[in-house]
Amino acid sequence: MELLTRFESGLFVGRDERWGRVGLSLDALLAQPLDDIRRLVGDAEAVDRPQGTPLVPIESQEVWAAGVTYQRSLAARVEEAVSADPYERVYTAERPELFFKATARRVRASGEAVNIRSDSSWDVPEPELAVVCNSTLEVVGYTIGNDVSSRSIEGENTLYLPQAKVYDGCCALGPSIAPAWGYDPSGRQIALEVHRAGEVLFAGETSTAAMRRTIPELLTFLGRNQTFPVGCVLLTGTGIVPPADMALRDGDVVTIRIDGLGELVNAVRKSL
Q1: Same domain as 232, residue 109
Q2: Do 29 and 160 fall into the same domain?
Q3: Residues in contact with 71: Cβ distance below 8 Å, sequence separation at least 6, in sequence order
Q4: What count of Cα atoms within 13 Å lies in the side-chain half-sphere of residue 4?
Q5: CA dihedral (205, 207, 210, 213) positive or negative
Q6: What is the pLDDT along the chain (272 residues), one digit of tens a residue?
Q7: Are residues 115 and 208 in the same domain?
Q8: 140 in Cβ contact with 177 (< 8 Å)
Q9: Full-model pTM
Q10: Are 215 and 118 part of one and the same domain?
C-alpha cells in the first residue's frame, strides 16, 4: 500500500521499502484533479528513504469536523449537555453537524504534544478517521485524526462549541496519508489508548462500520457555499468516548490506531 508522507525535504510516497519524491508540495498537489494527483504520485522519482521525522500531513488546508455521527457519540453528548435536545435532533436530521476545527498552525504531528485548555476541567481525545480532499472535494486519501475537546466547556452551553474545539494544539493528524485509490475506509477498526505514568488509563475500540453518516454525504454539506482552493481535511466523528471520570492531564500520552493507517501518538500538555 502507498503512503504519502511530508518531510522537511518535501512530499514523498512510500511503497513498502521503496520511496519516491512527489514533484509538488501538498498544497499544489491538492489543487489538482484526482486523476492528475494519482498520476503525479505514480510518477514520483525514486529516491532513498527521506531523512528526519515526518511532519503533519497538511500545509495550508483547513480542518473541519463532523459531530454526532456515531451512536456512542450521541449518547456522550446527551450526557454532558445542559440541554440534550440539539444532539438528539441532529443525529436523525438531514443536515449533519459540521464545524470548523483548526487552521494548519494549530495542528500537531504524530510525536508532538497536543494541548488541553487552561480553563477546562474535563478534556478528552476524540479518535477519528480523517478524510483528505482536493480543491473540488474529491477524496484524495485518509489519515488519523485526534479532535481534542473540552467536554466541560461544551457541556455548559452548546454555543461554547468553538471555544471547546478551537485553540492552539487542539488537533493532531498523521502520520501519513493513504491514497484513496489504494485504501477502503469501510469497516476499519479504530482503537484508542490513553497512558498515564506508563499505565493504560483507558482503552476503547470501534469501527467505521458504526458511522451513521456516509463520507459523500458529509462532503456534500461541507462543500455548500464555500470553496477550498488547496483542499481540506474532514474529521468524520468519533465512536469512542471515555467515561465521565476520565479527563486528560498534563503528561498523558494518547495513541490512536486505525487499521491500515498506522498510529498517531501525542503527549498531552496543559496550556498556561
Answers
A1: yes
A2: no
A3: 91, 210, 212, 239
A4: 31
A5: positive
A6: 899 999 999 999 999 889 999 999 999 999 999 999 999 999 999 999 999 999 999 999 999 999 888 865 545 544 555 555 776 777 778 899 999 999 999 999 999 999 999 999 999 999 999 999 999 999 999 999 999 999 999 989 989 999 999 999 999 999 999 999 999 999 999 999 999 999 999 999 999 999 999 999 999 999 999 999 999 999 999 999 889 899 999 999 999 999 999 999 999 999 98
A7: yes
A8: yes
A9: 0.93
A10: yes
Cβ atoms 231, 219 nearer than 8 A: no
Count: domains in the chain: 2
- Distances in Å between the Cα of 263 and the Cα atoms of 1, 89, 159, 235 are 16, 33, 33, 16
Domain range for 97: 62-270
Name the grid cell of 232: 481540506
Do both 125 and 38 map to the same domain? Answer: no
φ/ψ of 62, rounded to 5, equals -80, 150
CATH code of the domain covering residue 80: 3.90.850.10
Cis before 127? omega within 30: no
Closest listed residue to residue 101, CA positions, set 147, 51, 55:
147
